[in-house]
Amino acid sequence: MHGFTDETRALGEEILRYAAERLALDPVPLDGTRTVAELDAVAGGAITAQGKGGQDALKLFEDHLALACLSTDHPRYLSFIPCAPTREAAMFDLVVGASSIYAGSWLEGAGAVYAENQALRWIADLVGLPEAAGGSFVQGGTIGNLSSLVTARATARERATGGARPYRIAATVGSHSSIATACRVMDAEQVPVPMNDRMQMTGDNLRKVLEDNGPETFFAVVATAGSTNFGVIDDLDSIADVCEEYGIWFHVDGAYGGAGLAAPSVRDKYAGVERCDSFIVDPHKWLFAPFDCCALLYREPALARVAHTQHASYLDVLTDTPDWNPTDYSVGLTRRARGLPFWFSLVANGTDAYTAAIERTLEVTRFAQAEIERRDHVEVVREADLSVLVFRRLGWEAKDYHAWSDGILAREEGFVVPTSHLGETLARFAIVNPRTTEDDITALLDSMA
Ligand SMILES: *Cc1c(COP(=O)(O)O)cnc(C)c1O
């Protein structure tokens, strides 16, 4: 099975055909979920001692398993945060898979690491980070946040005087669930910062929390640049002032919203982001890369290298050099060159195309907001800062939202799960797919009438 025969070539052609046809679909089918019993009936016992052959295995995927997976790039998949890769990024993922590249070290993956660093530099420039900034691409925002916070704590403990061991982070309740997860993993404590009437963290509220709890007990402040539920950007500049005043690490979680930095129409909302110590954005969300891809950046990467480098005798050849080894900047060791599909698409399409695509999703979001305001049966809960919009269907209870959501999914018309806020069930659109149109929005709102 490591040889390349005529049969292998035929299978390769079939796989490329399948991939090309999938990428050409417009619109893609939404598909639907299935039960274990349903999948058992069609795909149970697929792994056998003799093997079924590649053609049959592909057929099993194509005819049964693929249909049991929702297409996150369907234009009416507006739940969670969708993933709508560019054709170039999706195609290049195949190349990365075929190339057997180890991208954890410069020695082994110099070409890939060089390219990934170019893509990271584009993001660092959008943020406004200095030339020395750097980091790596990790699996997702969860690992990006965890890696940043591990670095923040190691740095704070290194700098603390008198044996102090800061163990707290400050963040709002609007921060992502991965912050609470990071705290559990790290045995740290998350202290909630109250939000203002725009659901933002502000420097004043932060200062009060630090003073009430003892600023020396905190090792990081996590601000969100585009909260997942509402797309809220915290008041980054005033938060940066307070972090600077107390000498506390300033982490900005832009996993979803960081992409808006490339959109002139919303760029001013991020004022102060350039003052962060660490920053993340998931290109698999609003920067059109395939799963799974998070860009993690540090103002001073050397601090992360101290916190994360794994030492072992068999690794000395890698760690005892000044080379840029991506694996030294995050939790984890082995890594796929997961930034390469994103890099390839940036090179192929140019950054103006990214700006245009992000602006297009913002335009459709503004259309959705105006359309909701115009209709009697729905109302906006909070004006959208970015491309997430939460709204209320007047007269509906939780069960009505769920019945509507289940209905459109069963009919393969859309995937829009309800969210909740302050105990109330609500509807939510997350629009990061440039192929989502005004007509998609109108059709979904009509279906709630
Ligand atoms: C999605 C998200 C995360 C987590 O990212 P994953 O890639 O799902 O691990 C963290 N923070 C914010 C604000 C997010 O939207």
UniProtKB/TrEMBL annotation:
Keywords: Decarboxylase, Lyase, Pyridoxal phosphate. One of its GO terms (biological process) is carboxylic acid metabolic process. Gene3D superfamilies: Aspartate Aminotransferase, domain 1, Type I PLP-dependent aspartate aminotransferase-like (Major domain). PROSITE patterns: DDC_GAD_HDC_YDC. Coiled coil: none annotated. GO terms for molecular function: aromatic-L-amino-acid decarboxylase activity; pyridoxal phosphate binding. The modification N6-(pyridoxal phosphate)lysine is found at K285. InterPro entries: Aromatic_deC, PyrdxlP-dep_de-COase, PyrdxlP-dep_Trfase, PyrdxlP-dep_Trfase_major, PyrdxlP-dep_Trfase_small, Pyridoxal-P_BS. Its cofactor is pyridoxal 5'-phosphate. The keyword Lyase applies. It comes from the Bacteria. Pfam families: Pyridoxal_deC. PANTHER family: GROUP II PYRIDOXAL-5-PHOSPHATE DECARBOXYLASE, MIP05841P. Belongs to the group II decarboxylase family. This is Glutamate decarboxylase. It comes from Luteipulveratus halotolerans.
